Amino acid sequence: MSRCRPSAAGVGSTISRAHGNQKIYALDTWHALAASSTLMPGNPGKEATVDKDRIGDIEGRLALLGLTLPAPPTPEGNYVPWVRTGSLLFVGGNVGSLNGAAPAHTGRLGAEVSVAQGYEMARRCALNHLAVIKAALGALDRVARVVKLTGWISVAAGFFDMPDVLNGESDLLVELWGERGRHARAAIGVAALSRNAAVETEIVVQVTSDAEAGRP
Q1: Which of 44, 120, 140, 205 is deepest in the core (most CB within 10 A)?
Q2: What class, spelled out in words, does domain 69-207 have in CATH?
């Protein structure tokens, strides 16, 4: 078993565990969650450091992971960042560029980009999606469940571990929403992405009704 220990910031940190020919990349957040008596009721004597009444449960969990929301990405073409129809919110794709900066890793998985780096970029895509969802709904707590995640991974010939890369976003969604964060998914290998990005993802979530949210 080989390990890549998470950084203090938590972005892109992974654990790699081999199960036969399958590699599973998951976030090592147990200790961060265990530090919160709010999230871990059986942990007396520990004080949570996040004011969840002020920022909401989901953002509180995000903060406990050492993560903050970036600014919502600005569309770079003739489209809008999100569309809501009924109880579904469709959030457009992004390539993991945080706060308008260039992507941290570019190129193809299996060539210029490692699986760990691709996982990090998928995780960054997730943070951008969370920022857009909050801008659209006013609070991440209005997400009733995550419905569908689609990811495109730029790959070199012979690379087939696209699911391991997309776990970078999937793992974070499950850590934040638990079972409500588990989703249908497609991980697709492609020859190239815009801006030479390694990963692009888009997401669909179900939204609580305005009445449930206490809105007129």
Answers
A1: 205
A2: alpha beta
